[in-house]
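Notes from hallway chat w/ T.B., transcribed later so I don't forget. T.B. wanted the structure written out for a chain they're using in a teaching module, and asked if we could keep both sequence and structure tokens in one place. Agreed to drop them here.
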Amino acid sequence: MRKDVRSGCPISLSLEIFGDRWTLLVLRDIIFTGARHFRELLAGPERISSNILADRLAVLVDHGLLTRSGDPSHKQKVVYSLTERAIELVPLFVQLSDWGVRYLPVGEEFVARGEVLGAGGPPLWEVFMDELRETHLGPHARQAPAPNGPTVADQMRDAYTAVVG
């Protein structure tokens, strides 16, 4: 066990990574909005400052939740990609969103995306996770063939657009 952690408790160890205000929001924006560049993440609804965003991205890369690579379309841009570790957080995000919808005064535009995943349950979460694998890890990383019809990401975007116009 590392000497700089409080205990070997899995919740405590997880909070060493996710226990600040921003880390899960950065992952949320990559997972649910498709943000992949620093500027896209900086423009999130909570208006994270650039120095905190840079720090959170570095922590996520250090802990193996994101990878960082050069953007082939622009020499000075960096693309952040989810790793399998981060993709496996989707059920946690769905549950956290569901809890927030039930007990907190959330904005309707945020409810719409969560309702798609909540209504589809774990089978739809798996489809969405495969979509993320394909986008961030490549087509070889899918665990099941892509189903016919609109993607889960398209369904969430359509639900969001129906609310915000």
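Follow-up for T.B.: The first helix runs from residue 10 to 18. Might be a good example for the class.
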